[in-house]
Design brief:
Blueprint: E1 9-14, E2 20-25, E3 29-34, E4 40-45, E5 51-56, E6 62-67, E7 70-75, E8 83-85, E9 90-95, E10 98-103, E11 124-128, E12 135-138, E13 144-149, E14 152-157, E15 163-168, E16 171-174, E17 180-185, E18 188-192, E19 198-202, E20 210-212, E21 217-220, E22 225-228, E23 235-239, E24 245-248, E25 254-258, E26 263-268, H1 270-278, E27 292-298, E28 302-308, E29 311-316, E30 320-325, E31 328-334, E32 340-345, E33 350-354, E34 360-364, H2 367-377, H3 381-387, H4 396-405, H5 409-415, H6 419-429, H7 432-442, H8 445-457, H9 461-471, H10 474-484, H11 487-500, H12 503-512, H13 516-525, H14 529-539, H15 544-556, H16 560-564, H17 579-589, H18 602-605, H19 613-618, H20 622-632
Antiparallel strand pairs: 1-2, 2-3, 3-4, 5-6, 6-7, 8-9, 9-10, 10-11, 12-13, 13-14, 14-15, 16-17, 17-18, 18-19, 20-21, 21-22, 22-23, 24-25, 25-26, 26-27, 28-29, 29-30, 30-31, 32-33, 33-34
Helix pairs in contact: 2-3, 4-5, 5-6, 6-7, 7-8, 8-9, 9-10, 10-11, 11-12, 12-13, 13-14, 14-15
Length: 652
């Protein structure tokens, strides 16, 4: 008989998977009972008046409750699988009261399994458990397995699943030597020997809400944790921090404390503690001051974690699998669903995880890579370089990224095998020759452009020219050639620009060379006829009539009236001011247009750039002005490296 409701029971639900019975009543409460012991586990009251319906679904831990005034969905228990793996790769898990086992090493070497792929494991039935397991854990040597739940614990042999010991416990933890402790209440903890004999009872002066095993026995309340030695339960250190979980390294000198929003890596100074205790000095309520040293703090919440050497591997709330070495966090993999760490097999260099459906997955993590990073963080580069050859080439890029993050860019350049990454590092270091070799092999326009820009910024114009040729960056080539006064280069660039359809660059090249007829022809071919007419009026008056004829013909197709309004100097010379003078001046300066004086004389004549040839003709000084002006806007051959400003002076 289940007694507890104060009014009529209106709904009952036997959960299809969990060992619970759920009852709803007109008293407004939902009560959850253990299906085996019939003990009341929990009472829910959401103040929505009477309960009329309960529902559950196989494969889900959610239940729905129907009230007078609404519905509620609640999640019962947790989805973390009750499982444990020993150092040899044997996994034991609990599916309700049934205990099953698999062996990772049963997957033959002839079967290739990729990272994150479900392992094809053969499940074997190991036995049953007399209680409903809430936690399951191997002891350090893997001989025994403890199952804890329903306020009790049972220790079984790992192979035959025989009962070796049992007792009352809310929590159970192992020591590194095979001793263990149980928390029977918030004020009573018992410690047992390896022979399952009770050694001592500890009654903490505070409410012990959790206990953690490892090198030291740890008890924590809501806002602090206390560490004790296993032998005599002497206070070692109190640390004021909210603790969710605790992970000890196998070396026994490092510990990770997982909090609400961060985790902390601490170093345990065993020698300092032992020396303090041997001195006979009294330990106060705070413990030994130098017992722990904070090494690193990381703002991430840890779901599950394990240690591999000095490397802490963990999964976070974003379901990323990370590892932390020397405070440096590296993301190994992005998990596509919630997974929980089982352990690490050094023989396979793989870390194993399990999901709520008891699927086991493995991910590669090289021990040599961890050792290398650890030595680099410690500053022991000589030993680190000895380990580097043992790291497979496919992991060298990861090593290089780690070195770059430490500011060791030159070392990263030597290690990485990725051409793109090597190029970026070479650019950072300003090693242009190395970057040039990579760009030559890759034949990437973007790489050539980056290298060319860096070469220009460092004054290496010859390399910049070569790079921009490969990058086909015509605008920058124009800048380089004009800066060098390279007439032949500009001439080649003009031809290349026309081939590439870069008419703006081609026009500038021709204009700087004084090839005005070619400029007009380019404008006409580009259908920029009005611009061609204006240019002809300014620089080549003899071509105006020809261009106007072309303009009229083109415009006549769109607007005949506008086409007729265009004035032709051959038909109406009076409409063009100083027209005959302009034609005479053009004839006299044409022969000097291909003369490229040295750029060294530019400053002597820069103040004459505002003069017009028509004014000079009227003043009788045309020959002198023409000679001076063509010093200003002409170029010599590349061998003499001269510069000009182009033919910019107008006729009027």
């Amino acid at each position: 008989t289940l007694e507890g409701h104060t009014h009529n029971v209106s709904a009952v639900c036997f959960h299809p998977e969990l060992p619970i019975i759920i009852t709803g009543s007109e008293d407004g409460t939902v009560r959850i009972w253990h299906a085996t012991t019939y003990r009341l586990e929990n009472t829910l009251n959401y103040s929505l008046e009477r309960v009329w319906a309960l529902g559950s679904m196989k494969g889900s831990r959610r239940i729905v409750i129907g009230y007078d005034e609404g519905t509620i969905m609640v999640k019962i228990g947790r989805e973390v699988p009750v499982s444990s793996m020993d150092d040899s790769g044997k996994i034991i898990w609990a599916k309700h009261n049934e205990i099953q086992t698999v062996n990772i090493k049963s997957v033959g070497t002839n079967i290739e399994v990729t990272d994150g792929e479900r392992l094809p494991l053969t499940v074997k039935e190991l036995g049953t458990c007399d209680l409903y397991p809430q936690s399951l854990k191997h002891n350090p040597n893997g001989r025994f397995v403890v199952v804890c739940g329903d306020g009790e614990y049972i220790i079984y042999t790992a192979l035959a699943w025989r009962n070796r010991s049992f007792g009352s416990a809310l929590e159970f933890i192992w020591s590194p030597d095979g001793e263990y402790a149980v928390r029977e209440s918030t004020s009573k903890i018992k410690i047992f020997s390896k022979n399952f004999q009770e050694n001592r009872i500890v009654r903490p002066t505070f409410s012990a809400e959790h206990i953690f095993g490892g090198t030291l026995l740890a008890m924590c309340s809501s806002d602090f944790i206390c560490f004790y030695d296993w032998a005599e339960c002497r206070m070692i250190r109190r640390i004021d921090v909210t603790v969710k979980n605790l992970y000890w390294a196998d070396s026994a000198d490092m510990v990770a404390i997982a909090g609400d929003t961060s985790f902390y890596i601490l170093k345990y100074n065993r020698d300092v503690v032992q020396s303090y205790l041997n001195s006979g000095r009294q330990v106060d309520e705070q413990g030994v001051e130098d017992a722990f040293e904070l090494l690193h703090e990381t703002n991430e919440r840890v779901r599950t974690g394990i240690w591999v050497g000095d490397c802490f591997i963990y999964s976070n709330t974003s379901w990323r699998l990370n590892y932390c070495v020397g405070g440096e966090v590296t993301t190994m993999f992005h998990l596509d669903r919630p997974m929980y760490l089982l352990g690490y097999l050094a023989s396979q260099s793989r870390v194993y995880l399990i999901d709520k459906e008891f699927n086991v997955m493995g991910y590669t993590l090289l021990l040599s890579l961890i050792e290398y990073k650890t030595l680099v963080m410690q500053g022991d580069l000589e030993r680190a370089n000895e380990i580097l050859p043992s790291i497979p080439k496919e992991h060298h890029n990861s090593v290089a990224q780690f070195l770059e993050s430490r500011g060791m860019i030159e070392d990263a350049l030597e290690v990485t095998t990725d051409p793109d990454y090597r190029f970026d590092l070479a650019m950072q270091l300003g090693k242009l020759e190395i970057a040039k070799e990579i760009a030559t092999e890759a034949q990437s326009e973007s790489k050539w452009k980056q290298l060319g820009e860096l070469a220009m910024s460092t004054g290496k114009l010859a390399m910049a020219e070569e790079c921009m040729k490969h990058a086909v960056d015509l605008s920058v080539l124009l800048l380089i050639y004009s800066s060098l006064g390279d007439a032949e280069g500009i001439s080649r660039l003009a031809s290349l620009s026309k081939e590439q359809g870069k008419n703006n660059v081609a026009f500038l090249c021709l204009f700087m060379l004084g090839k005005l007829e070619d400029c007009l022809q380019l404008l006409v071919e580009s259908n920029r006829i009005p611009e061609a007419a204006l240019m002809a009026r300014s620089y080549l008056p003899s071509k105006v009539s020809e261009i106007v004829t072309i303009w009229r013909k083109d415009l006549n197709r769109v607007n005949p009236r506008a086409a007729e309004s265009l004035a032709n100097p051959q038909e109406n010379p009076g409409m063009f001011e100083n027209w005959k003078v302009a034609l005479d001046v053009e004839t006299r300066v044409r022969e000097k247009r291909g003369v490229y004086p040295p750029a060294a004389v530019y400053l002597k004549h820069a103040d004459r750039s505002w003069l017009t040839l028509v004014e000079a003709h009227e003043n009788g000084d045309l020959n002198h002005v023409v000679y001076n002006l063509y010093y200003l806007f002409s170029l010599k051959p590349a061998a003499q490296k001269n510069i000009g400003t182009g033919c910019r002076t107008k006729w009027r």
